[in-house]
Amino acid sequence: DAGITQSPRHKVTETGTPVTLRCHQTENHRYMYWYRQDPGHGLRLIHYSYGVKDTDKGEVSDGYSVSRSKTEDFLLTLESATSSQTSVYFCAISDPGTILQFFGPGTRLTVL
Amino acid sequence: ILNVEQSPQSLHVQEGDSTNFTCSFPSSNFYALHWYRWETAKSPEALFVMTLNGDEKKKGRISATLNTKEGYSYLYIKGSQPEDSATYLCAFHMNTDKLIFGTGTRLQVFP
Fold this sequence. Notes:
The complex is a heterodimer of chains A (112) and B (111).
Chain A: E1 4-7, E2 10-13, E3 19-25, E4 31-38, E5 42-51, E6 54-57, E7 64-70, E8 73-78, E9 87-94, E10 102-103, E11 107-111
Parallel strand pairs in A: 2-11
Antiparallel strand pairs in A: 1-3, 3-8, 4-5, 4-9, 5-6, 7-8, 9-10, 9-11
Chain B: E1 5-7, E2 10-14, E3 19-24, E4 30-38, E5 45-50, E6 56-59, E7 62-67, E8 72-77, E9 86-94, E10 99-101, E11 105-110
Parallel strand pairs in B: 2-11
Antiparallel strand pairs in B: 1-3, 3-8, 4-5, 4-9, 6-7, 7-8, 9-10, 9-11
């Protein structure tokens, strides 16, 4: 398995609170991605990074921000969580040479 | 808005049956087409990535074909087994860094 970890793995929080999810990789891959998975929607891209301090928006970026201060870590922040952000969040990594994306174990977030 | 469609949405087959699913994607700005296997409570696992029109890939009993001109890919499973039960996702890779995923085909193989 690719060396990707996500923390926390489960979180329950209340509407209006800030939440930060962490993705950590040991593969030194250049690209990192955050997806959310919801029934009927499959995987939807929130934000991605193509290098340290280089990030871009995906199709469902509203309400989320990201940061990548070092190659191995990609943080996803919900500034003020809403119930519509209840979801399972997956981090993925890839490298230009391999094209394939490798996924982390996921974080289940519940916003009450 | 770019659309990646998979059909059928779900499929129930008996052990030993062969089956196939379809992924339709835009035929412009094509870079690659990915297939992933996603078991319940796990994370998606890469099966294949195909880049050239006419590409065929095989991994054990699972194979895939690619037609970039008409914008479709087929995934075949020969002699399905209960352990093949999973959701199979395809993803369209444009000539950017992003993938656009379909919603998947959920396969259930009964013993």
